[in-house]
Amino acid sequence: MPRLLHTADWQIGRQYTTFPPDSAMPLMEARFAAVERLARLATAHRVDAVLVAGDVFDAQTVSERTLRRLFDALAGYAGPWVLLPGNHDAALSESVWQRAVRLGIVPARVHLALQPEPIVLAEAGVAVLPAPLTQRHTYADLTDWFDHAETPPGLARIGLAHGCVQGVLAEDIDSANPIAPDRAERARLDYLALGDWHGCRRLDARTWYSGTPEPDRHKDRDNGAGQALLVELAPRTCADTAADPAPQVTPLPVGQFRWQRLVLALQVESDLDAAAETLAALGQADVVDLRLRGQLDLAGEQRLNTVLAQTEARVRHLDVDRSALRLAPTADDIAALRADGYLGALIDELHAAQQSTSTATVPSPELAREALALVAAALATRRAGQGA
To answer: What is the pTM of this model?
Structure first.
């Protein structure tokens, strides 16, 4: 009974340009570490082959060092690997794949699926039907040829493709490359291994997206990224694949980092308590997109700043969006700042600007909040220095 490891969307060489270097470098390194973990998983589970359903590399222009590191990372599994070009690393006439071949760094056990023709892995008990992308976007279903492809009798028929299953996935995934939703049935496939959607998803008993093994973006809900799929095929009993038992598919955890999007509403002190507790549970494995809304008085603002500073030091990366959070000093707050004359008027003006819904407001509500926080902090510091 063949056993396979299905993975996709490694995007080796990805640049996290919106992150500071001390966050970006560990995230880049994590993608190589994920491949090394996949190799160890393949060995530990004694799989017959590893299938990579596209986007091995993030771009055609990755460095030679990156190419060599990737193929070195496969060393932990001595069986066959099948690597499929996706939309990020399409099999162009001059591509990252040709560079790797010219450099002579592709191990013999690594099969580059650069042509739409069967890859027969007799010892693994499978024949792989690949649909390599030859450009970033295509508008024809490149898996059509699976339906009529001949494969040796007795071997499991495995489809390998990268694109969008029509009518199933959201429109905002990486590529429009279409795939028929009933391809596994029409092509008599024992299993169809897909890539392009970065989450793990079962489309039918024989058709799965594995998702990326190392999460790389924030989502409003968990989509199952950070895994690979262990696929155990049932023995063939007849020519009609649909009559055979479906494969057993088991997700295996791989990812190192957790990308989380948190939305916290702050109105009263107990909200801050709950927020502090939520943030205290985060650690070095967390890449956090934090969105705050509501309003705080000056004491709450100061406490929030302390909590955020502690969190930023503890997690891998923290982005904070305060655009929906207003600073609302109480009358006692303003009186305690001892701001009169021009400063008092400025505080009142900034306070009012925060509450405006007009896009023509100057300053904008977000800028007004930041300015009010700075003025309040400066006044509080001066007051403390005067020993008041």
So the answer is: 0.85
